[in-house]
Design a protein that fits this description.
- The complex is a heterodimer of chains A (about 110) and B (about 120).
- Chain A starts with a strand and ends with a strand.
- Chain A is mostly beta strands.
- Chain A has no helices and eleven strands.
- By secondary structure, chain B is an all-beta fold.
- In chain B, strands 2, 5, 6, 10, 11 and 12 form a six-stranded mixed sheet that branches.
- The termini of chain B are far apart.
- The chains are: A mainly beta (about 110), B mainly beta (about 120).
- Chains A and B meet through strand 4, strand 5 and strand 9 of A and strand 5, strand 6, strand 10 and strand 11 of B.
Amino acid sequence: DTGVSQDPRHKITKRGQNVTFRCDPISEHNRLYWYRQTLGQGPEFLTYFQNEAQLEKSRLLSDRFSAERPKGSFSTLEIQRTEQGDSAMYLCASSGYSAYGYTFGSGTRLTVV
Amino acid sequence: AQTVTQSQPEMSVQEAETVTLSCTYDTSENNYYLFWYKQPPSRQMILVIRQEAYKQQNATENRFSVNFQKAAKSFSLKISDSQLGDTAMYFCAFTTFHYYGSSNTGKLIFGQGTTLQVKP
């Protein structure tokens, strides 16, 4: 296993379009997290999955955002009707039993024009 | 609310010198983990060092060590013998830990980051 993979690495989209990002965690990790990071800032928590169950969502996750983790494997994060304020790096991370062994992906950089 | 504060937006150090990055946090929890992460430009977040709150001994990983002051809620990172490859943004992060129940999500709360430049 080569770590956490995210696809695409970069995405440029027009305002109002929908976008979907994918995250493939480390196979034996049951916990999966999405974070958003704007330029020069620390990542902010968006949502958390334990296996296929979405157990926590941040208030940052508006109704335009939805995340899934079917069968407890890969996860997708969809943003509908994108806005310029959605421009950011979207990071995925996975861990095993606790946060002790977090592994981050390289992120998807979204630019909304 | 749980918060993490890094008061030094930018720092620089000469190669081979020592530098200390500051971090303070606020929580009412007693069980938690603290982390320092490194994020090189356009590259992924890498764990540098971690500390369990119940351990009094400060964590050390090669050239990296922490000064954990639980009562003061302070968690600074010392980098010794700085190398050019240490140039990156450094984030302090925190997560609570609960031995029982489902509230142990493990989500990280990050500080704003400190950009470290190591100069030759």
